[in-house]
Amino acid sequence: MDIADTVERLTLAGYAIHENFISFMREFRGLEIQPALAAGPNFMNDEPYWVSPNRGVRYLDEALLLESVFGENHNPVGWWLSSSHVFMGASGRVRAYLDGLVWELGETPYEALEFAVRPTRPLVCAWSSPGRRPWPKQP
Questions:
Q1: 77 within 8 A of 32, measured Cβ to Cβ
Q2: Domain that holds residue 56
Q3: In a domain? residue 139
């Protein structure tokens, strides 16, 4: 799939596009994947995983926050649970950001995609903004 328009839009918005992102987008851009399993071990998952990076032009500030917290460049993948914004780090690790919370979705984009539609492990809050309680609460 040709993603030149997506790469151009995101680059103009200030993103530094990485190869893991390009590879994943060539295969999956435009997909809306409904959950196959609605109940994860510690959360409900009744929303689709959207692979739609173009909306990410509005969320560069979140990508920059992720870079400052996790030490790697992030590109927008789409959105998921509660309309959280999904980003992929240059390492391939995928995280979702929502209202001061960051969730780890997977070490690779494929693991994250599988988790988003079939959550068989707990959702992990990897970071929360100062004063914000992590959710879900970790044991």
A1: no
A2: 4-128
A3: no
> Is the confidence at residue 134, as pLDDT, over 70?
yes
What tens digit of pLDDT does each residue of 82-124 get?
Answer: 999 999 999 999 999 999 999 999 999 999 999 999 999 999 9
| Token couple for 123 | 């959702």
Q: For the chain, what is the mean pLDDT?
A: 95
Domain tally, the chain: 1
> What is the percentage of the chain residues whose pLDDT exceeds 70?
99
The set of long-range contacts for 15-23, using a CB threshold of 8 Å and a minimum separation of 24, is: 15/56, 15/60, 15/63, 15/75, 15/76, 16/73, 17/75, 18/73, 18/75, 18/88, 18/90, 20/88, 20/89, 20/90, 20/91, 20/92, 20/109, 21/53, 21/75, 21/77, 21/88
Does residue 101 sit within a domain? yes
**In-domain check, residue 134:** no
Q: The whole model's pTM is what?
A: 0.95
